[in-house]
Amino acid sequence: MVSMRVVCQVLAILGLSAFPVHSDTVTLRSNESYNGTVTGLSAHSLKLEGNFKGKINALDVPLATVSIVEFNDIVHNSGAAPPFGAREVTTQPPDSAVPQPPSAAEMSADVLVLLGGQRVRCAVLSIDKNGLHCDGSEYERDRTYRIEFRRR
């Protein structure tokens, strides 16, 4: 007979495997924020998969509403999925990363802020399962603190 403790451990492991490998926080221009994993980025929308009240939802977030994407360990949202494009589907930077005021050039382009505080201006930016792509260069999610969307 299998003990209840073993069953609980197996269920906990299976439950954790349902969470995304990468976690992100998407902050809208309205200051609302949602946690999950950014799974795609196009010229007009950002794809976010997240846990909303125990259900995994995929959101198509209009890019014009996005202010910042931060890469961290937060996967859970306390509320329900927001209304835009939702459909159900089956870290803080180190102390050395002191924010710098944006330059005039940065104000006209999206900006990657890497761990350590380095800022990279991006005219063409995309995200996929392999990482972030900025003007032909690739960046690992684990080495990126956030994206600041400026051009919308």
Write the layout of secondary structure elements.
Layout: H1 4-17, E1 23-28, E2 33-41, E3 45-52, E4 55-62, E5 66-72, E6 76-77, E7 87-88, H2 104-107, E8 110-114, E9 119-122, E10 125-128, E11 131-134, E12 137-139, E13 144-148
Indicate the percent of residues in helices: 10-25%
First-to-last CA distance: 60 Å
Main sheet specs: 10 strands, mixed
Please mark out the parts with pLDDT under 50 across 5 or more consecutive residues, or reply none.
Answer: 6-20, 90-94
**Percent of sequence in beta strands:** 35-45%
Rg measurement, Å: 17 Å
Structural class: mainly beta
Number of strands: 13
Q: What is the mean predicted local confidence, pLDDT?
A: 75
Number of distinct helices = 2
Number of domains: 1
So what's the overall shape? globular
Give me the strand/helix succession. HEEEEEEEHEEEEEE
Summary tags:
ten-stranded mixed sheet, 13 strands
Describe the structure.
This protein has 152 residues and is mainly beta. The protein has one domain (20-148). Helices cover 12% and strands 44% of the residues. The chain contains two helices and 13 strands, in the order H-E-E-E-E-E-E-E-H-E-E-E-E-E-E. It has helices at 4-17, 104-107; strands at residues 23-28, 33-41, 45-52, 55-62, 66-72, 76-77, 87-88, 110-114, 119-122, 125-128, 131-134, 137-139, 144-148. Strands 1, 2, 3, 4, 5, 6, 7, 8, 9 and 13 form a ten-stranded mixed beta sheet that branches. It has a three-stranded antiparallel beta sheet with strand order 10-11-12, with no helix packed on it. The longest helix is centred in the N-terminal third of the chain and has 14 residues, at 4-17. The chain is globular, with a radius of gyration of 17 Å. Mean pLDDT is 75; it is low at 6-20 and 90-94.
